[in-house]
Amino acid sequence: MRTERPQAKQDRAVRTRQAILEAAAVVFEDCGYDAAKLADIVRLANVTKGALYFHFDSKEDLAQAVIDAQVAMEPVYLPQEFRVQEFVDVGMIFSHRLRHDVLMRGSARLTLENTGRDLDRAAPYQGWIDLHTALMTEAKARGELLAHVNPADPARLVVGSFAGLNVMSHTLGLDLDLEVSALYTSVMPSLVIPALAVRLDTAPGRGARALHGPQEARQCECAGTRLSAPAEPRATEPRATEPCRPAEPCPAEPGVPRPGMP
């Protein structure tokens, strides 16, 4: 009897875990933590319940893994002539990528909710604050900021505002990219020396332009929303290849809607 090589088993386990994470992110994004069902996650990932429990001890453990997956992602922004433009780009690119990365959206909703008591929600916030503070500290050293600006203050302001804008945008049906653009357009002139403030690109679509160039000719290559192929396909259930939704709608709840930064 032919046995599976250890490396093949390891690769299959990695694929299975990723499929479960992505399916969980979809369900958490749609339903929130309390209403999310492991049965929906198993069905969407097309794995057995045993496979889920092999990788994750509980729903809370799985939710924490979704949050941790976002924390582990490398922030995406390209070097610019001015650090203050990079400060803007971090948020604008994040807003752009939210449309393409289900783990970001699922993680951010979990981070914004007040359910799942033992979940560590601080790490995403702190990671974004640290990144923004570092960029503004460099900008200060290069003479890009007004003399009164403390680099840590706008870092916290922008991270907190981004999260709030996303909640408001989803609740009111607004375009998050437009709202984030308005945030930077309003805030940056009070932080940056006038000679640079007029040169900043804070217009809608900056995230796509920063990633793909002014013409946005290429299709977005951010992390996709397709689910990873499960390692343990079952003949009775076709593999999900598109971002699905649970078979039954989640019960209506007043909780925090879909995610934003962090």
Describe this structure as you would to a colleague:
It is a single chain. This protein is 57% helix and 0% strand. With 262 residues, the protein is an all-alpha fold. The longest helix has 30 residues. It is elongated and about 65 Å long. The C terminus is likely disordered.
Which terms summarize this structure?
262 residues, mainly alpha, 11 helices, 57% helix, elongated, disordered C terminus
The string of secondary-structure elements, in order, is HHHHHHHHHHH
Low-pLDDT stretches: 223-247, 252-260
User: What global shape is seen?
Assistant: elongated
What is the helical fraction, as a range of percent? 55-70%
Structural class: mainly alpha
Q: Which range does the strand content fall in?
A: under 5%
Rounded to the nearest angstrom, the radius of gyration is 20 Å
Distance, first to last CA: 50 Å
**Biggest sheet layout:** none
Task: Lay out the secondary structure.
Elements: H1 6-35, H2 38-45, H3 49-55, H4 59-72, H5 83-97, H6 102-112, H7 122-141, H8 152-172, H9 176-187, H10 194-197, H11 206-212
